[in-house]
C-alpha cells in the first residue's frame, strides 16, 4: 500500500460470556460493583482436588445464543462459549447476517488446550482396563475404538471455534486460529488489524475462548501452574498482593468486531475505540530474560511506538495479573523496563481477581473490559489486594473505581513461557 494512508481500524461490537456476567452490560455492571465470580466448585466434585475454588459460568444455556443448534453436539464447552460471544458481538455491532459481503468478513480466534471430559471416553476405557495386559491394545483396536463417537475429536480441535463462528455468520474471508495460550486473543487482534489494513477484509470477528472447568483439566493445570490452595474466595487470586499464593481456574470467552474506520462511519456504526497499536515479543531461552519479562517489555514498547504516544498518556494498564509469585514479579519488571517512571503512576487493574485464569479466553475477556472502561470512563478495582508487594511497585487500584484521565488504554497478556502481547486502544 505504498503511497497510501494506512486504514484506521476500530472496534464496534463487544460480546462477553464470563463468570461475572453474560453480555457486556451485565459484565460491566458486576465489574464496576466489585462482584467476584470466584467461589467453591459446584459443577463437579472438587473435594479431593488440589484446588477447591473456581470461577464458573452458572447460567449459560447454549441454545439461547447459538443459531446453528445442530452443531452444539459437536462443540466442547470452550467452543460454545466462543461462538456465543461472537454472536453477541455481531449483534452489538448492528451487523445482521448478510449485511457484510461474506467475502469481506473474516474470523481470527484464539484458543487454548481444549480438554476432553471423562464421560466421552468412559465406555472405551472400561473395556481397556478389564482386559489382560497382553490383549489390551488388540482388544482396544478391535472393540474399544467402536465405543468412541467418530466425531469426538471435533470437540477438541483448537481451530473449531473459528470454523463454527465463520459458519454461524457466513464469513468467507480470511480465517485463522491463534494458539499461544494467554496471549492468543491479543495476537489474533494484531493479525485481524493487519488483514483490514491490507484491504483483505472490511470486518473481522475476533476473540478467544477457553474453559478449565473439568477434573482432568484442573489436575493438568496443577502439574505446571501455581494454583491457590485457599478455601476463601476473597483470599484466593490476589494479583500483585505480597501474600498471593496462586491463581484460580475459570472459563469464559470474549469477542469483538473490528472494522475499517471508513466502512464503520459509512454505515453509522457506534465505535467503542480505535486500535492504535499491538506489539508482540517473547522472552527466549534465558532464565534472566524470563524473570525480567523481556518479551512483555518489547511488546509494550512496540505498541507505544505504533500508537505514537508516551507512557504518561496511558489512562490505565489492564494487567495480566496471574496472581502467582513468579509471573507477577516478571510482569512488574516489564512495566518498569518499558514505561520507566510512569510504571509507578499509571493506574493498574488485574481482573483475574474476578474471574480467574483460563488460558486464551481470559485475555479476550480482559480486553473487552478495557473497551468498556474507556466507554464508561471508569476503571474497576482489583479485588483481594490488601498488602502491596514491594517487589512490584505498581499503582494497583483497589479501594474504589477511578475515573480515567486520558483516552488511551493498555491491555497485556503473557504466557508462562514468555510469549507476550500488548494492545493499545484509544477512545473515539
Which runs of at least 5 residues are low in confidence (pLDDT < 50)? none
What structural class do helix, strand and pairing data support? alpha/beta
Kindly state the percentage of residues in helix.
Answer: 25-40%
Helical segment count: 13
| The CATH homologous superfamily of the largest domain | Thiolase/Chalcone synthase
Q: Could you name the CATH topology of the largest domain?
A: Peroxisomal Thiolase, Chain A, domain 1
Taking all residues together, what is the mean pLDDT?
92
At the first level of CATH, the class of the largest domain is Alpha Beta
**Cα distance spanning the termini:** 25 Å
- Strand content bin: 15-25%
Q: SSE string, helix = H, strand = E?
A: EEHEEHEHHHEHEHEHEHHEHEHHEEEEE
Structurally, the number of domains stands at: 2
Largest sheet: 14 strands, mixed
Question: What is the count of β-strands?
Answer: 16
The CATH architecture term of the largest domain is 3-Layer(aba) Sandwich
Radius of gyration: 21 Å
Give the overall shape: globular
Outline the structure in words.
With 428 residues, the protein is an alpha/beta fold. It has two domains: 9-115 and 156-427, 3-Layer(aba) Sandwich (Peroxisomal Thiolase, Chain A, domain 1); 118-152, no CATH class. The protein has 13 helices and 16 strands. The strands form two sheets. Strands 1, 2, 3, 4, 5, 6, 7, 8, 9, 10, 11, 13, 15 and 16 form a 14-stranded mixed sheet that branches. A two-stranded antiparallel sheet has the order 12-14. Helix 2 (77-92) packs parallel to helix 5 (160-169). The longest helix is centred in the C-terminal third of the chain and has 18 residues, at 359-376. The chain starts with 8 loop residues before the first strand and ends with a strand.
Amino acid at each position: 500500500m505504498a503511497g497510501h494512508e494506512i486504514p484506521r481500524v476500530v472496534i464496534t461490537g463487544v460480546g462477553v460470556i464470563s463468570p461475572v456476567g453474560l453480555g457486556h452490560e451485565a459484565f460491566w455492571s458486576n465489574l464496576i460493583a466489585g462482584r467476584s465470580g470466584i467461589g467453591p466448585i459446584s459443577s463437579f466434585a472438587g473435594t479431593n482436588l488440589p484446588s477447591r475454588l473456581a470461577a464458573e459460568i452458572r447460567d449459560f444455556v447454549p441454545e439461547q445464543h447459538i443459531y446453528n443448534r445442530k452443531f452444539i453436539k459437536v462443540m466442547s464447552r470452550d467452543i460454545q462459549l466462543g461462538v456465543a460471544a461472537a454472536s453477541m458481538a455481531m449483534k452489538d455491532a448492528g451487523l445482521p447476517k448478510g449485511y457484510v459481503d461474506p467475502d469481506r468478513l473474516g474470523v481470527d480466534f484464539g484458543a487454548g488446550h481444549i480438554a476432553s471430559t471423562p464421560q466421552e471416553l468412559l465406555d472405551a476405557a472400561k473395556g481397556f482396563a478389564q482386559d489382560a495386559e497382553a490383549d489390551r491394545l488388540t482388544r482396544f483396536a478391535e472393540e474399544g475404538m467402536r465405543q468412541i463417537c467418530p466425531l469426538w475429536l471435533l470437540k477438541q480441535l483448537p481451530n473449531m471455534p473459528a470454523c463454527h463462528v465463520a459458519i454461524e455468520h457466513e464469513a468467507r474471508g480470511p480465517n485463522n486460529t491463534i494458539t499461544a495460550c494467554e496471549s492468543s486473543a491479543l495476537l489474533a487482534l494484531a493479525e485481524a488489524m493487519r488483514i483490514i489494513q491490507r484491504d483483505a477484509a472490511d470486518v473481522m470477528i475476533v476473540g478467544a475462548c477457553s474453559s478449565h472447568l473439568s477434573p482432568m483439566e484442573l489436575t493438568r493445570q496443577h502439574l505446571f501452574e501455581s494454583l491457590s490452595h485457599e478455601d476463601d474466595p476473597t483470599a484466593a487470586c490476589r494479583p500483585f498482593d505480597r501474600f498471593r499464593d496462586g491463581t484460580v481456574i475459570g472459563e469464559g470467552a470474549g469477542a469483538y468486531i473490528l472494522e475499517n474506520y471508513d466502512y464503520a462511519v459509512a454505515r453509522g456504526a457506534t465505535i467503542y475505540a480505535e486500535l492504535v497499536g499491538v506489539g508482540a515479543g517473547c522472552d527466549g531461552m534465558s532464565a534472566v530474560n524470563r524473570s525480567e519479562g523481556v518479551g512483555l517489555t518489547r511488546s509494550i514498547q512496540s505498541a507505544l511506538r505504533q500508537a505514537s504516544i508516551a507512557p504518561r498518556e496511558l489512562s490505565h494498564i489492564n494487567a495480566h495479573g496471574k496472581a502467582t509469585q513468579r509471573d507477577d514479579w516478571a510482569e512488574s519488571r516489564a512495566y518498569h523496563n518499558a514505561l520507566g517512571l510512569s510504571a509507578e503512576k499509571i493506574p493498574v487493574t488485574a481482573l483475574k481477581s474476578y474471574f480467574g485464569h483460563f488460558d486464551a479466553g481470559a485475555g479476550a475477556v480482559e480486553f473487552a473490559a478495557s473497551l468498556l472502561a474507556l466507554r464508561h470512563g471508569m476503571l474497576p478495582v482489583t479485588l483481594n489486594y490488601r498488602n502491596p508487594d514491594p517487589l512490584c511497585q505498581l499503582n494497583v487500584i483497589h479501594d474504589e473505581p477511578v475515573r480515567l484521565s486520558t483516552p488511551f488504554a493498555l491491555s497485556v497478556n503473557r504466557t508462562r513461557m514468555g510469549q507476550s502481547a500488548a494492545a493499545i486502544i484509544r477512545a473515539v
